[in-house]
Amino acid sequence: MAKPKQLKVTLLKSRFGRLKKHRACVAGLGLRKIRQSVMVLDTPENRGMINKVSYLVSVEEV
Asked: Class for domain 6-61, per CATH?
């Protein structure tokens, strides 16, 4: 069975002053501080959260 792909997500801008749903997406991805990076699985749910806050984060495929 193939190993699921992972994405490296980095928070580039502050989550403060953003919409409540966007802050929830950032928290759902596990990001807390600016320039913090986390590894998440490449799933439709995570892709949806990343797309919603794409102006706050950068994404790399690993």
From this structure: alpha beta
